[in-house]
Design a protein that fits this description.
single chain; alpha/beta; Rossmann fold; 3 domains; eight-stranded mixed β-sheet; six-stranded mixed β-sheet; 35% helix; globular
Length: 592
């Protein structure tokens, strides 16, 4: 039976201001029940193409030419020539869109339940009471454990992953004919990403909904798409079925994107006992509790243990990675390691300034001593745009740490800024620019340069590549590896991306709800995992191959309730088994 075409885009060209079209000659079709992936790096025109279909482009944008024909029982209509009133009846009804950053798309002044209910009230004529019941059912469907609580919440009161789920619920509640999903899983943990993709696929099977999926993640494409359009600098480079484009790419740019995608290892090496003769950082029996006061939305009060009994040692010149979902305690451990948070009583953080030196106990340092320690231990943050002051030129950003620590005179600080830019592969001519003049990858290089200004021996990298395109991510990882090897740096690397960790780490610890549940070298951990939670993370890791399909059952089991795990791994009243060495160099939280 011939598939029914839902939307046909022809000769779409978009420009900005009075200039020529920057996005040119875009052509594609999407059939009912089908998923089309628009793939490419930032700036390729993916998002603006989708926004043009709904005519929600920025003010400076102008559609030069093209049609977007949406089929209907009465024939069809060109979305690009409809009046605003006619288009308003289609937006949120026949076509819905999930935006990349839900915090910017949800009103901070209105509760989430009211915002999602509005769709049903506007387009389906529901009363507030009947809309609420349907919204609560939709919230349960997208995986909220307490839909009523989310219904009463404001966007700032829930996590990023929960906000993204709320956006998905809003987009699908009216059962649209076409869902446009703009990077719907970029900010999500791998297990949440897998569940969201599975949910969208289920809805397609039930309702025949078509999906346009905007992404730079080829693993998502291989698992979720039927057809692919590869874009670069506003032009289509290649298009076809997912099997043709991903497994047998014809264009060099597509091959470049696929080559840049990191993958987890598939061949196991024998595990071996690990000895660290020259340690730089050690955490021993580190826990962290937070006292949540009663009366607020987030809690009824009480003590919450964010980190529980963490132990590890990082060798000088090595990379120790921590992986896990949001809320697992990764970033709290990083803050404790830097002395930014104090551990609970009994926790010890030891730092060796150099080989053979007497270690510093970071948790007992006086303010001036901690200041000297933090010269040697610096941090690279996840979002370089937020961590770089928009009001400071690059030269001021790079020399500020030197001024704070009273290092050198003005000329020496400027020379150091030039040296730092060259170390991270940027030109000294960029010293007088502001952060907004740089791409995401360049801003992350500036963040790394700033972290290196004080010549530290330890860098804590908190999700340093999660917001970057694949090719830029590969460049930043290569830069971090090069700097580590050239300068004998040590890394504590925080991430939820197992493929990135597999590339850069010498040892990996998997955290879940404040505890390390498994730890080993990456080629051992990823090829012979033992803990159910580690297996879930690996099962949820998407690779750019149509042969490597996601195992949603394994994800649901390992990432779900610990009572569903085999008995030797289960928690009993929040008391977990001990972390034991099951094989040389391989540690698992299991009852033997």
């Amino acid at each position: 039976m011939r598939e029914k075409r839902l939307i046909k885009v022809r000769d779409l060209s978009i420009g900005f201001g009075k200039g020529p079209a920057l996005i040119r000659d875009i052509n594609f079709d999407v059939n009912c029940g089908e998923t089309l992936a628009l793939v490419g790096e930032s700036g390729s025109g993916k998002t603006q193409t989708c926004r043009a279909i709904l005519r929600i482009l920025p003010k400076a944008a102008r559609i030069h030419s093209g049609t977007a024909i949406l089929s209907s029982p009465t024939g069809g209509c060109d979305l690009l020539s409809l009046s605003e009133r006619e288009l308003g009846d289609i937006r949120g009804d026949r076509i819905s869109m999930i935006f990349q950053e839900p915090m910017h798309s949800l009103s901070p002044m209105h509760k989430i339940g009211a915002q999602v209910s509005e769709v049903l009230c506007l387009h389906r004529g529901h009363s507030k009471r009947s809309a609420k019941q349907e919204v609560l059912q939709s919230f349960a469907r997208v995986g909220f454990p307490d839909p009523e609580r989310v219904y009463r919440s404001y966007p700032f009161e829930i996590s990023g992953g929960m906000r993204q789920r709320a956006m998905i619920a809003m987009a699908i509640i009216a059962k649209p004919d076409l869902l446009i999903a703009d990077e719907p899983t970029t900010a999500l943990d791998v297990t949440t990403q897998a569940q969201v993709l599975g949910l969208i696929k289920d809805l397609q099977q039930e309702t025949g909904m078509a999906v346009i999926l905007v992404t730079h993640d080829l693993g998502v494409v291989a698992n979720a798409a039927d057809k692919v359009v590869v874009m670069r600098k506003g032009r289509i480079m290649e298009s076809g079925s997912v099997a043709e484009v991903i497994d047998d790419p014809a264009h060099g740019y597509t091959r470049q994107l696929i080559a840049a995608a990191p993958v987890i290892p598939h061949e196991a090496n024998p595990s071996c006992a690990r000895t660290i003769e020259d340690p730089i950082l050690q955490l021993q029996n580190v826990s962290k509790s937070f006292d949540l006061r009663g009366g607020g939305f987030m809690s009824k009060g009480g003590l919450v243990k964010a980190v529980r009994g963490v132990n590890f040692t990082i060798g000088r010149g090595k990379t120790f990675a921590i992986v896990g979902e949001s809320g697992s305690g990764k970033s709290t451990v990083a803050q404790i390691a830097l002395g930014a948070r104090a551990p609970d009583t009994g926790g010890i953080i030891r730092f060796w300034p150099e080989n053979g030196a007497t270690p510093l106990e970071v948790q007992t340092l006086e303010p001036e001593e901690k200041r000297r320690f933090q010269r040697q231990a610096q941090m690279v943050f996840q979002d370089p745009f937020s961590s770089l002051s928009p009001r400071m030129q690059v030269i001021d950003t790079l020399t500020e740490p030197l001024e704070i620590h009273n290092i050198g005179i003005r000329r020496e600080r400027q020379d150091r800024a030039v040296e730092l830019l060259e170390q991270v592969g940027l030109s000294p001519s960029m010293l007088r620019r502001f952060p907004h003049a740089f791409s995401g990858g360049q801003r992350q290089r500036l963040s790394i340069a700033r972290a290196l200004a004080l010549r530290p021996s330890l860098l804590v990298c908190d999700e340093p590549t999660s917001a970057l395109d694949l090719s830029v991510q590969a460049q930043v990882l290569e830069l971090l590896e090069d700097i580590r090897d050239r300068m004998a740096l040590s890394y504590l690397f925080i991430s939820h991306d197992l493929a990135v960790v597999a590339r850069i780490a010498d040892e990996v610890a998997v955290m879940r709800r404040g505890q390390i549940v498994e730890q080993a070298a990456p080629d051992v951990l990823f090829t012979a995992p033992k803990h159910p939670y580690t297996k879930a993370l690996i099962a949820a890791c998407l690779e750019p191959s149509v042969c490597q399909k996601i195992d949603l059952d394994a994800v649901a089991t390992g990432a779900g309730n610990p009572q569903s795990w085999p008995e030797e791994y289960r928690f009993k009243d929040m008391i977990a088994p001990e972390l034991v060495e099951t094989d040389p160099g391989h540690f698992v939280r299991v009852a033997l």
